[in-house]
Amino acid sequence: SSPTRSSRPAPTCVAARARADPRVLSARRAMAEATALSGSLDVSTLKTAPIDGQKPGTSGLRKKTKVFMEGYYLHNFVQSVFNALLAEGVPVEGGTLVVSGDGRFWNPEAIQIIIKIAFANGVKRVWCGTNGLLSTPAVSAVIRTRGKGFEPFGGFICSASHNPGGLTEDFGIKYNCENGGPAPEKMTDKMVEFTASLTEIKMCEGVPDVDLSKAACYSIGDRVVEVFDSVEDHLSLLQQCFDFEQIKQLMARDDFSFVYDSMSGVQGPYATKILEEVLGGKPGSCINADPRPDFGGPSSAWHGHADPNLTYAVELVKAMGLNAKGEKIDTGKPVPVFGAGADGDADRNMILGSQFFVSPSDSLAMIVANADVIPQFKKAGGLKGCARSMPTSGALDRVAEKKGLPFFEVPTGWKFFGNLMDSGTKYFPDGKTYTPFICGEESFGTGSDHVREKDGMWAVLAWLQILAAKTLAKGRLVTVEEVAIEHWKEYGRNYYARYDYEGVDKPKSEEMMKAMADKSGQLVGQQVQGMEIKTNDVFEYLDPVDGSISKNQGIRFVFTDGSRIIFRLSGTGVAGATVRLYLEKYMPADGDLGLHAFDVVKPLAAIAMELSGLPTATGRDTPTVIT
């Protein structure tokens, strides 16, 4: 269920509890200098009607920007969220709400609309990042730590993640609860119920648009909008997780260099502040660091598709001496020691060494294997649990088994990690506690329980901490490739790739998935192109924390040698459907660890085509993207 509180103090521009926190002191100054805005808090009742198709996917509601801009499309969804919150007893009246986004086209206008609807529904205080910018993990950090902590009842994030932005591209919105995490299914289901019966929208149309360009505090009657530095809260939290001084030593080495690509998304201000200004990285190492509403648009090397993978992160991948297949190329320039990238809303990450790509599945396993050098976990007595999404490779499983860590395999969608992160808290006080906790997905998402979202900057700092600690211990620079090879020699290697078939016919794809699901358990023992099937099923998840069951979470084929083939129909697109095919083959520690992953799993792709009939169902012989 959605986290709620039964009571809350009257909202102000700053936490009532005094403490020597520069963020609090800054807020106090803003409060003292609050600008009174002329306008009216009179509530208008706007007549509306239900709009079809407003059910959020695994990461919120996403549609074409023009759809959100039409009529009351955004208004309907936001009002339905408030109706659901009020029905569930969430303390909206007199409460604090976070509203910001990833800076994509129409973000500023959407934020102003949400503020007006929020005030009409009883919200007393709205928090916004400067320029309306907050990365998705930063929103979670703000909810959990700003002021005296856990002040807001939740927040709206205006983002469609890595999807392109622009008038003809995509827009999105999602709601996060007071624990900083995405709304659970019970809450999103309630929201959808209200979208189907909505007849009116409450809105304070007389509230003027608020200047979000600088940190300031504004009052309209007894309501408050506080605009604060977008970076400060996330930075402060990350400083508690990592040894910044040790990372500074790594950054200062003559033989260390890095490049960080924000792909014109929201991460730019965070990257330059944290990696260059605070940690002392060489100026200019953070590229494409100015957020743009179209994430660079069609003229950019990545065509505005701010997605950090081998296909789209063109400039980063080339700078690191690789091509889109992860093969080494000669760039004619010195290749940096370390490379990383972020997507549009900065919750995803990509990790590279010099001419070396680390798959997200391996990155997760390697961070967990080296968690003892990260202060966040050292200070808490070590990790207590770890998890991966079902399609993510089994590399993490082997680390968890060797280290004796509780391990979980969950459906795709960060919200499924939420209960594990909240185990042992006031929400679930009676069961086991699995925190401190690390989790991740094959889709370039990695994080821990410091927030309730995947956190691209956290993952990058975790890698820098590992490199810094190992470099200090060995008295010489240790590279990303060395860390990976050392890991594979101990745990073996899970060769892995994901094939995406984008924009395919949805009904035909659903028929294909159903045909495979109908054969669940019937193919055990059968040989397919020389490989024996051990199990074939439809994945379902029993949540160990709240006992809920999530069904129909993907098709699995597992072979007797440990290889896996997974099929999923993605729920985050805005047009057509995306079939995701995951291929994995395990190589033991004494096997050949230096092969190219795409070559190793290619035979599995041929088997997958036979098992699924995908070419016939989709009309596609080749995937749109391979990562």
Offer a few descriptive terms.
31% helix, disordered N terminus
Structure description:
This protein is 31% helix and 22% strand. By secondary structure, the chain is α/β, with parallel strands linked by helices. The protein has an 8-stranded mixed β-sheet with strand order 1-9-10-5-4-6-7-3, with helices on both faces. Strands 21-22-25-26-27-20-28 form a 7-stranded antiparallel β-sheet. The longest helix is centred in the C-terminal third of the chain and has 19 residues.
Summarize the structure.
By secondary structure, this protein is an alpha/beta fold.
- Helix/strand-derived category reads alpha/beta
Low-confidence stretches: 1-20
Largest sheet strand order: 1-9-10-5-4-6-7-3
Q: What's the story with the biggest beta sheet?
A: 8 strands, mixed
How do the strands and helices of this protein lay out in sequence?
Layout: H1 22-32, E1 35-36, E2 44-47, E3 61-64, H2 65-69, H3 73-87, E4 96-101, H4 107-120, E5 125-129, H5 136-145, E6 154-158, E7 170-177, H6 185-195, E8 200-203, E9 216-220, E10 223-228, H7 232-241, H8 244-252, E11 258-261, H9 268-278, E12 286-287, H10 314-319, E13 338-342, E14 349-353, E15 356-358, H11 360-369, H12 375-378, E16 385-389, H13 395-403, E17 407-410, H14 415-421, E18 437-441, E19 445-448, H15 456-474, H16 480-491, E20 493-504, H17 506-518, E21 527-528, E22 531-538, E23 541-542, E24 549-550, E25 555-559, E26 564-569, E27 577-587, H18 597-612, H19 614-618, E28 625-626
Parallel strand pairs: 1-9, 4-5, 4-6, 5-10, 11-12, 11-13, 16-17, 16-18
Antiparallel strand pairs: 2-8, 3-7, 6-7, 9-10, 13-14, 14-15, 18-19, 20-27, 20-28, 21-22, 22-25, 23-24, 25-26, 26-27
